Amino acid sequence: MCIPSRADERNAVEVWSGLDQQQIRNQKKKAIQEHQAIMKNDPVLAEVASKANYHIKQDILAISTAYYKLVLNALSDLATKFQDSKMYRIVFCTTQPAHVVTLIAVMTVATLIVPGEKPDDCVASKSVKPSPFFYLVYLASFMMHFGAQMWMTFVSGLSLYFAVPRHTFGEVQKVLFPKYFGINSVLSLLTIVMFVKLHPSSSWDLYTGVQVGCMAFCFLLELILRLYFAPPLLSLIASKNAMEKAAGVGLEVGKYDPGPLAHCPHYLKIHKAFRKVHMIIAMGNLVTMACTAVHLHYLSEKICNALI
Predict the structure, then answer these.
(1) By C-alpha distance, which of 144, 145, 159, 152 is closest to 175?
(2) Of 88, 120, 245, 270, which has the fewest beta carbons less than 10 angstroms from its beta carbon?
(3) Taking CA 231 as the corner, what is the angle to CA 225 and CA 236, rounded to the nearest 5 degrees?
(4) pLDDT tens digits for 221-273?
(5) How far apart are CA 1 and CA 123, in angstroms?
(6) Could you read off the pLDDT of 140-152 as tens digits, one per residue?
(7) Would you say residue 277 has pLDDT above 90?
């Protein structure tokens, strides 16, 4: 891929600035007049164009997209107002709320793991068949979790890294990383809650206990990555990209080339910290995928036994 140099960009700006704006307006007006003349001289073409415009105006996708944009703009305005509030600064700019969320998560997992009913109660409860809704939520949350892991790790990240400039890739990852680990932690929690609901703790054997342990560890690890590692990673990406843009690097595709920053101690320190945090997140993501794979094997074994 050929990247234009800064000299080429400056020349393009100078050429564009030197154009006669009045000449541009005249050319635009002339093009409109020619189009109107063609439509006037060819009634068939004018009728086809009119029908096409009618269908475009009545297109349900275009209408729904416009309303969707309005909803997003309204939510964006609310988010902006919330970010200016004192509560936002307390929740997202300090570490105390993250500690509280982690403590609540640990207590929730402990509540799910600790046996809550006696064996006699468990035997009596077996006569009550769980609602299909619980199975639906359980399977849907697990499948979405597993699919998100596969897509983010093996498709989205690698495809973008080898297809777009490195800074563009970094900006995309800044948006996706918090959402990825946040949504996955919620799906992990939902999966383990539904699994415990369908399998009371007093009836667990060793194999079932391993499943609960893997899912609980997966949930806590994804939550920790979201709360404690994703924010510093985003901050390091922003600092690193700012220095690279100032030095004129970061537009390479599928490779890393620091250019003149290779001899800058401050940049190398930031880059080393970025690589360290990024490696921790990558290894943590692989561990959560291993936990998901363990539960996938459990489900496949259950399906196999049911079909035999």
Answers:
(1) 152
(2) 120
(3) 115
(4) 999 999 999 999 999 999 999 999 988 888 889 888 888 888 889 999 999 99
(5) 67
(6) 999 999 999 999 9
(7) yes
Tell me the CA distances in angstroms from 299 to 125, 143, 184, 206, 296, one per residue in order. Answer: 23, 11, 19, 15, 5
Backbone conformation region of residue 259, classed left if phi is above 0, alpha if psi is from -120 to 50, else beta: left
CA distance 80 to 74: 10
Closest to 248 (Cα-Cα) out of 239, 259, 240: 259
Q: What is the pTM of this model?
A: 0.70
Ramachandran area for residue 158 (φ above 0: left; ψ -120 to 50: alpha; else beta) = alpha
Amino acid identity for residue 255 in this structure: K
Residue showing tokens 């699994």 = 195
**Block residue for tokens 């793991």:** 113
What is the CB-side half-sphere exposure of residue 104 using CA atoms within 13 A? 8
How many C-beta atoms lie closer than 10 Å to residue 212's C-beta?
19
Q: Provide φ and ψ at 165, rounded to 5°.
A: -55, 150
Domain spans of the chain?
A: 35-84, 99-307
Tokens representing residue 271 in the block:
């880059």
**What CA–CA distance (Å, rounded) separates 258 from 264?**
10
Place of tokens 């700012």: 242
Q: What is the identity of the amino acid at 9?
A: E
Q: How far apart are CA 146 and CA 152, in angstroms?
A: 10
Residue 254: helix, strand or coil by DSSP?
coil
Count of alpha carbons within 13 angstroms of residue 261, beta-carbon side: 21
Give the residue, 26 or 199, on which the prediction is more confident: 199
Nearest to 216 by CA among 99, 100, 98, 108: 108
Give the count of alpha carbons within 13 A of 116, CB side only: 12
CB atoms within 10 A of CB 21: 8
Nearest to residue 12, comparing CAs of 3, 24, 4, 21?
Answer: 4
